[in-house]
Specification:
The protein is α/β, with parallel strands linked by helices and about 250 residues long. It has two domains: about 5-50, Helicase, Ruva Protein, domain 3; about 60-250, Rossmann fold. It has twelve helices and seven strands. A seven-stranded mixed sheet has the order 3-2-1-4-5-7-6, sandwiched between helices. Helix 8 links the parallel strand 2 (about 115-120) and strand 3. It is globular, with a radius of gyration of 18 Å. The relative contact order is 0.12.
Length: about 250
């Protein structure tokens, strides 16, 4: 696709720091129409692009309460349930959104010493989180500006974190599968399959009710549930704050 049309989409400030590859996928889905591509990007990334998130009064955990997709999350409770007293050394958070601002709660659970590596496509959020880590002195935390369709990059990160000082490694996939499937059908399965070969545990989540909390979703996402049940050992499956979390081993069953 011509570079000019990609740049046209990115003339809008909110889309200016999205990777070109992701913008191109939106253009393909929108049949080359700039307005349609922007509408698609706004649907899946617009929740991250509000002034309350991008222009916060201060860089702290309060951003989590300003963000529509995370304000209901009880991160401390989620992390206690996911880790279940297990000493995790590395977290790789794919499509992390604003989760990086919850690193303090990870420190609260473990008392420090945990590596946090995020991958996020919204460049403005990447800058905010890395500034937050720097200001708080969180030297073990960093977010990369990439989209998850750059699968080679994602796998390379995990391969570089295979030393005993970085293991065990847990991968987060919080509320990302719907967007991935819109842009490329069955990519979630491909991503999980390849990532599972390079980590010890994966946590996938998806919403079970609307962001307002008033409406339960009818979609049960059986396609991903059956895939996980067939190929992996499910360690935990629970709902919390309108979100379903599935914890499973990162190794395929023989």
């Amino acid at each position: 696709m011509e570079k000019e049309i990609i740049l046209k989409v990115k003339e809008k400030k909110e889309f200016s720091q999205l990777p070109d590859g992701l913008v191109e996928k939106a253009l393909v889905a929108g049949k080359g129409d700039v307005k349609q591509a922007r509408a698609i990007l706004r649907k899946y990334f617009g929740v991250f692009l509000t002034n309350r998130v991008l222009k916060p009064k201060s860089l702290d955990e309060g951003i989590l309460k300003s963000h529509i997709s995370t304000r209901n999350r009880d991160y401390l409770e989620i992390y206690k349930r996911i880790f279940d007293s297990e000493k995790i050394k590395t977290i790789v958070d794919l499509g992390c959104g604003v989760n990086g601002f919850s690193y303090k709660f990870i420190v609260d659970v473990f008392g420090g010493g945990v590596n946090y590596i995020g991958v996020e496509s919204v460049g403005q959020l990447v800058n905010l989180m890395n500034n937050y880590f720097r200001d708080r002195g969180f030297q073990r935390a960093y977010v990369f500006h990439k989209d998850l369709f750059d699968l080679d990059f994602v796998i390379d990160i995990l391969k570089k974190l295979k030393g005993e000082e970085e293991k065990p490694r847990i991968v987060f996939l919080f509320n990302v599968i719907d967007a991935l499937e819109f842009f490329e059908r069955n990519f979630s399965k491909k991503l999980i399959s390849e990532v599972s070969e390079e980590c010890e545990k994966i946590v996938l989540s998806f919403p079970v009710q609307s962001l307002s909390g008033k409406t339960k979703f009818k979609s049960k996402r059986y396609w991903i549930l059956s895939f996980l049940e067939e190929r992996f050992k499910i360690l935990d499956d629970f709902e919390l704050s309108g979100e379903r979390f599935i914890v499973f081993t990162g190794k395929k069953e023989v």
